[in-house]
């Protein structure tokens, strides 16, 4: 089957490469010429484990190609996935301009029956609106179907998540579109992946409800951690104790410096906004956001407790990306920390396994990005572990402590071995323990 994916960012590129891996013929389109030029040379501009290999293999085997021409993509494909960005507007609602732009282009170009699949995360009601929008912009009436097929991949394990998802959600109005979608994902039937086949609105809502639930779960454990800090309990043990309850589960119970990234903040805000539009105030979701806003500055509070005055001090951040195994800095907690510490007159340095080695470091302001952990430690009054990159568990902390003015470690992810750090000479502070 010939498939076009429009938007070759984190989601679109993984979708295109993995659908090619399922045996489909893929053309991936992006308006960013630089990105497409790199991809045509087999180079992936984002850091995502395993992605470059899947891209290279499928290009070599002739199932995956890249283009800047949406016209070429739409004309040569039966199914068109829309995977462009849907960032937040200032009021928290989702900015749908890119999705609508692409939908109008598809309408103008389509010359026969097409299935338009919305992969981007879009507010409830968008598929229904896109149907009208496409009808209004067609040159002549041509039948087409719209499908909502939200994506649940996690950056850092996106390829694995796409090839072995927990479930596939399909929202559609026509049997023909459902049959085509089942055909595309037939490889997943073999591994008994559950399929949720439903209407547009429900499929759109499943995506927002999943992200809102996960964000709320993190805010919940962070709230518990803050109480633990005051009463002398250890949140890591509390999380273990409640996570063993099968009704609760042990995932997403790691207390720390709050959630961030390109999805949770914007998706929770968009859901609150949608609820507002329908006259419903989403109290719980608003509380999850406000707990998170406070949590993202918990490291500053802890630094103040230890160092007292932050003005003139130097703080080193271990990690910059919003989570490990990605280069994504969108809405990363590190950015809040840098801004806040700068405002307090603190000098901020950072080391991140990906950012330190890439051109990304030049785009950051208010922080000096060092090339290795020891250079980071040199002259610091405290370190804050911001991202739980695996390699941070095995740094030479003794050496690092010896280079610091003040060997203080604020472990913002409760990720390091407290005893090991203490033996290395650090004054260790976790979150809620
Ligand atoms: P991204 O910014 O990495 O990629 C979007 C791509 O679309 C960019 O390469 C951009 O150049 C391209 N684009 C924009 N307008 C275009 C146009 N008119 N024609 C062609 N290309 C165009 O975004 P992303 O992180 O891949 O997210 C895409 C969507 O998927 C969003 O709705 C997001 O919420 C959702 N999502 C993201 C993740 C994730 O982990 N990043 C997970 C699940 C869902």
Explain what this protein looks like in three dimensions:
This protein has 18 helices and 14 strands. It has helices at 10-21, 33-40, 51-60, 70-75, 97-109, 126-137, 158-163, 175-184, 186-190, 200-231, 235-243, 264-277, 283-295, 298-307, 333-343, 373-377, 397-403, 418-423, and strands at residues 2-6, 25-29, 64-67, 79-82, 114-118, 144-148, 168-172, 195-198, 314-318, 347-351, 368-369, 382-385, 408-411, 427-429. It has an eight-stranded mixed sheet with strand order 3-2-1-4-5-6-7-8, with helices on both faces. α5 (97-109) links the parallel β4 and β5 (114-118). α10 (200-231) crosses α12 and α10 (200-231) crosses α13. The protein is globular and about 70 Å long. Bound molecules: nicotinamide-adenine-dinucleotide.
N-C termini distance: 54 Å
Structural class: alpha/beta
Strand order of the largest sheet: 3-2-1-4-5-6-7-8
Mean pLDDT, nearest integer? Answer: 97
What low-confidence regions span 5 or more consecutive residues with pLDDT below 50? Answer: none
Shape: globular
Helix content: 40-55%
Count of DSSP-assigned helices = 18
Small molecules held by this entry: nicotinamide-adenine-dinucleotide
How big is the Rg?
A: 23 Å
Instruction: Tell me the total number of β-strands.
Output: 14
The portion of residues forming beta strands comes to 5-15%
The major sheet is characterized as: 8 strands, mixed
């Amino acid at each position: 089957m010939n498939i076009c994916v429009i938007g070759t960012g984190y989601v679109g590129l993984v979708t295109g490469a993995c659908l090619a891996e399922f045996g489909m013929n893929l053309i991936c389109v992006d308006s960013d010429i630089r990105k497409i030029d790199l991809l045509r040379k087999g180079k992936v501009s984002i850091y995502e484990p395993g992605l470059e290999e899947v891209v290279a293999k499928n290009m070599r085997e002739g199932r995956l190609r890249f283009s800047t021409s949406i016209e070429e993509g739409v004309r040569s494909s039966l199914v068109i996935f829309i995977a462009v960005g849907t960032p937040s507007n200032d009021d928290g609602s989702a900015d749908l301009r890119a999705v609508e732009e692409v939908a109008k282009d598809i309408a103008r170009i389509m010359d026969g029956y097409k299935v338009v699949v919305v992969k981007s995360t879009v507010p409830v009601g968008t598929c229904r609106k896109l149907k009208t929008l496409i009808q209004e912009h067609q040159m002549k009436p041509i039948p087409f179907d719209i499908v909502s097929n939200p994506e649940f991949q996690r950056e850092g394990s996106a390829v694995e998540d796409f090839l072995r998802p927990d479930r596939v959600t399909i929202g559609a109005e026509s049997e023909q579109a459902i049959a085509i979608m089942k055909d595309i994902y037939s490889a997943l039937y073999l591994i008994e992946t559950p399929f949720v086949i439903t209407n547009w609105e429900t499929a759109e809502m499943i995506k927002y409800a999943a992200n809102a639930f996960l964000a709320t779960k993190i805010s919940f454990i962070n709230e518990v951690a803050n109480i633990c800090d005051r009463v002398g309990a250890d949140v890591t043990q509390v999380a273990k104790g409640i996570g063993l309850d099968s009704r609760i589960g042990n995932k997403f119970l790691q207390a720390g410096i709050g959630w961030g990234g390109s999805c949770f903040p914007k998706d929770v805000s968009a859901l609150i906004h949608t609820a507002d539009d329908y006259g419903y105030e989403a109290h719980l979701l608003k509380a999850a956001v406000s707990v998170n806003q406070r949590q993202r500055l918990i490291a500053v509070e802890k630094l103040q407790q230890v160092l007292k005055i932050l003005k003139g001090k130097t703080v080193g951040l271990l990690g910059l990306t919003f989570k490990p195994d990605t280069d994504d800095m969108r809405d990363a907690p590190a950015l809040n920390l840098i801004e806040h510490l700068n405002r307090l007159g603190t000098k901020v340095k950072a080391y991140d396994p990906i950012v330190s080695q890439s051109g990304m470091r030049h785009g950051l302001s208010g922080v000096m990005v060092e090339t290795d952990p020891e250079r980071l430690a040199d002259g610091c009054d405290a370190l804050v572990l911001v991202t739980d990159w695996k390699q941070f568990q095995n740094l030479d902390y003794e050496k690092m402590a010896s280079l610091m003015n003040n060997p203080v470690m604020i472990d913002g992810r409760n990720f390091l071995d407290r005893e090991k750090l203490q033996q290395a000479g650090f004054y260790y502070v976790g979150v809620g323990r």
